[in-house]
């Protein structure tokens, strides 16, 4: 990770670069920033710069032996600790290091939710436990392999439980020579005061509008007007921006699937339902949830059209023309059940329900609901 890969945050980059140039790298630092601001990326870029053997004035070289290992996050003197879902097999970060590397390399702005989705452990509590602390101490007791410094990045440090945190107090106060701790944290209120007092604060602000717009145009190929729209919605959070881009891309295909599904349910076209069911179950769990959330959005907009202020309806042109025909099917007699069924489906997907059974059940239900006699809004 180069400083150059990080969106905005110019002041912090300069300060960190300066600390290396002046040989005053603090042994314990707290990278504090809200979700999606890039604190983890910043810690990794800083670590890479410390370790780079051909430092440029504003960034790591990207080519030396150390940098090459850093681009794969496999440098032997770079260590990570992060929350995991404890189980028989998973006791510490080391047990899921491969998945962690892939996750961070594909999106270093990842959130704790993203990480737990990847671990398929959404319902478990993310924790950095006591065994992790022991593992951290063990890793730092090793001599360095290739670098002058050993670096330990603890991501979401606020997820350390009290005994894990207490175990680290001593080493944070008197770390072994040439060891740097980088604690990455979103909410310092959840960190022990004794931990905070032993670290030097590196405050990461939300990403400024201009840098974020520029990144969305150059990295994500958005038009300037689309980029501006997303910046208005994402509050300096690049993670949210990425999600919104994904949702926009999905919206069109979601609409087509929803139209097909409702037509098939209305007539109970088994063949079509089967095709859609196969398509649905082939999606990742996240995309299934995204689709159900989209269906909920459409149902809500139908209710708004029928019973509330039409001016509050937020739909695209394509959705608008579909809803002209479809909204009468969502009425006082069935709208609550529609909503209820979709909410339940969302919850069941989160809990690992079998997608085919779920989709079939809900299709039966929708056939019933869509064929209920339609009371007109004026009758209510
Ligand atoms: Zn280098």
Notes on the protein architecture:
54% of the residues lie in helices and 7% in strands. Helix 13 runs antiparallel to helix 15 (335-350) and helix 15 runs antiparallel to helix 16 (355-370). It has a five-stranded parallel sheet, with helices on both faces. It is built from 16 helices and five strands. With 380 residues, the protein is of the alpha/beta class. The mean pLDDT is 91. It folds into two domains: 3-206, Rossmann fold (3-Layer(aba) Sandwich), CATH 3.40.50.300; 237-379, Zinc Finger, Delta Prime, domain 3 (Up-down Bundle), CATH 1.20.272. Strand 3, helix 7 (162-173) and strand 4 (179-185) form a beta-alpha-beta unit. The protein binds zinc ion. Zinc ion is lined by residues 52-54, 60-61, 64, 66-67.
Written as H for each helix and E for each strand, in order along the chain, the element string is HEHHEHHHEHEHEHHHHHHHH
Q: How would you sum up the major sheet?
A: 5 strands, parallel
* Alpha plus pi helix count: 16
CATH topology of the largest domain: Rossmann fold
How much is the average pLDDT?
Answer: 91
By CATH, the architecture of the largest domain is named: 3-Layer(aba) Sandwich
Name of the CATH first level of the largest domain = Alpha Beta
> How many distinct folded domains?
2
Overall, the morphology is elongated
How would you write the strand order of the largest sheet?
2-3-4-1-5
Instruction: Please state roughly what percent of the residues sit in beta strands, choosing from under 5%, 5-15%, 15-25%, 25-35%, 35-45% or over 45%.
Output: 5-15%
Radius of gyration: 25 Å
Which structural class is indicated by helix and strand composition? alpha/beta
Bound ions, cofactors and other small molecules, one mention each: zinc ion
What's the N-to-C terminus distance?
Answer: 60 Å
| CATH superfamily annotation of the largest domain | P-loop containing nucleotide triphosphate hydrolases
Number of strands: 5
